[in-house]
Amino acid sequence: MTGKRVWVAGHRGMVGAAVVRRLAEENCVVLTAGRAEVDLRRQAATESWMAAQQPDAVIVAAATVGGIYANDTRPAEFLYDNLMIEANIIGAAHQLGVVKLLFLGSSCIYPRMAPQPITEDALLTGPLEPTNEWYAVAKIAGIKMCQAYRRQYGCDFISAQPTNLYGPGDNFSLSQSHVIPALMAKAHNAKIAGAKSLEVWGTGTPKREFLYVDDLADALVFLLKNYSGSVQLNVGTGVDISIADLARLVCSVVGFEGELVFDASKPDGTPRKLLDVSRLNTLGWRAETELADGLRTTYAWFCDHYREARL
Ligand code: GDP
């Protein structure tokens, strides 16, 4: 990657920011585009910015993202924004002769009832989880675009499917966030208020796998250097935890000692979502950060950035 111009699309998001941090260790030129400078949902703006910058490689971490509630209540944006962003960037990357492009998908692309752990072969073998099917459909289209440009034009466009992510820079707003930042913010506020209990959505029985965002960034750089293929590679830890156990762990990291109250009127989402990461392991990459350690670092970040943590 020495001397190469690498564009991190979406550098202000949790993933993009982690990729920029990781790329500082490489001898490359990191390109970023502010939202005021270019709206990636607009084709002409995206094309002219990319033509002016001439990136050698692109990491597509720009997306409209959110947790179970956001996905379920803003289906139009989850589809429109994500389809436009990926179509604009991938199409322009082909026209400009970008040498390598890495598109980020999500583990929610897989069928709701896929056999666990979920292998890459499970894609499009069954119905999606309804609470996030909008996001999933957009991400599947992005994966298929990478495969189509590879097949028709020989472009080296790859894609990676991270499991549920967390870490510094996450969105802690209760209506938009994923479960870890939501529980962390709730536990923090409950501790400060001296509350007796903390509300956890759903039954607590669903299981999720969580990857620390700096581990993901490391995996993405590894894939840029070492992977060229049409299969959308899974990126995860290979370990999952129930939401109830996760909530207990978050409370212990935050130092909240009250009770958990489960609100079963809120959706559980998919019952289990554990990725099979053996393909990635075989290539030579493995996640390093233990969940408890990653939660501690994330909570320290949250405390330092409490005011601006998109609460
Ligand atoms: P998902 O993996 O797409 O379902 O996304 P989330 O991270 O939003 O939710 C994961 C699981 O955590 C679901 O079963 C949620 O119901 C559960 N959960 C429990 N409490 C919360 C909360 O306060 N916020 C969110 N977003 N999820 C919660």
UniProtKB/TrEMBL annotation:
<feature type="binding site">
    <location>
        <position position="208"/>
    </location>
    <ligand>
        <name>substrate</name>
    </ligand>
</feature>
<comment type="similarity">
    <text>Belongs to the NAD(P)-dependent epimerase/dehydratase family. Fucose synthase subfamily.</text>
</comment>
<feature type="binding site">
    <location>
        <position position="201"/>
    </location>
    <ligand>
        <name>substrate</name>
    </ligand>
</feature>
<dbReference type="GO" id="GO:0050577">
    <property type="term" value="F:GDP-L-fucose synthase activity"/>
</dbReference>
<dbReference type="Pfam" id="PF01370">
    <property type="entry name" value="Epimerase"/>
</dbReference>
<dbReference type="InterPro" id="IPR028614">
    <property type="entry name" value="GDP_fucose/colitose_synth"/>
</dbReference>
<keyword id="KW-0521">NADP</keyword>
<keyword id="KW-0560">Oxidoreductase</keyword>
<dbReference type="InterPro" id="IPR001509">
    <property type="entry name" value="Epimerase_deHydtase"/>
</dbReference>
<feature type="binding site">
    <location>
        <begin position="10"/>
        <end position="16"/>
    </location>
    <ligand>
        <name>NADP(+)</name>
    </ligand>
</feature>
<feature type="binding site">
    <location>
        <position position="178"/>
    </location>
    <ligand>
        <name>NADP(+)</name>
    </ligand>
</feature>
<feature type="site" description="Important for catalytic activity">
    <location>
        <position position="106"/>
    </location>
</feature>
<dbReference type="GO" id="GO:0070401">
    <property type="term" value="F:NADP+ binding"/>
</dbReference>
<protein>
    <recommendedName>
        <fullName>GDP-L-fucose synthase</fullName>
        <ecNumber>1.1.1.271</ecNumber>
    </recommendedName>
</protein>
<feature type="binding site">
    <location>
        <begin position="162"/>
        <end position="165"/>
    </location>
    <ligand>
        <name>NADP(+)</name>
    </ligand>
</feature>
<feature type="active site" description="Proton donor/acceptor">
    <location>
        <position position="135"/>
    </location>
</feature>
<dbReference type="GO" id="GO:0042351">
    <property type="term" value="P:'de novo' GDP-L-fucose biosynthetic process"/>
</dbReference>
<feature type="site" description="Important for catalytic activity">
    <location>
        <position position="108"/>
    </location>
</feature>
<comment type="function">
    <text>Catalyzes the two-step NADP-dependent conversion of GDP-4-dehydro-6-deoxy-D-mannose to GDP-fucose, involving an epimerase and a reductase reaction.</text>
</comment>
<feature type="binding site">
    <location>
        <position position="186"/>
    </location>
    <ligand>
        <name>substrate</name>
    </ligand>
</feature>
<dbReference type="GO" id="GO:0016853">
    <property type="term" value="F:isomerase activity"/>
</dbReference>
<keyword id="KW-0413">Isomerase</keyword>
<feature type="domain" description="NAD-dependent epimerase/dehydratase">
    <location>
        <begin position="7"/>
        <end position="236"/>
    </location>
</feature>
<feature type="binding site">
    <location>
        <position position="139"/>
    </location>
    <ligand>
        <name>NADP(+)</name>
    </ligand>
</feature>
<comment type="pathway">
    <text>Nucleotide-sugar biosynthesis; GDP-L-fucose biosynthesis via de novo pathway; GDP-L-fucose from GDP-alpha-D-mannose: step 2/2.</text>
</comment>
<dbReference type="InterPro" id="IPR036291">
    <property type="entry name" value="NAD(P)-bd_dom_sf"/>
</dbReference>
<feature type="binding site">
    <location>
        <position position="268"/>
    </location>
    <ligand>
        <name>substrate</name>
    </ligand>
</feature>
<keyword id="KW-0511">Multifunctional enzyme</keyword>
<feature type="binding site">
    <location>
        <begin position="104"/>
        <end position="107"/>
    </location>
    <ligand>
        <name>NADP(+)</name>
    </ligand>
</feature>
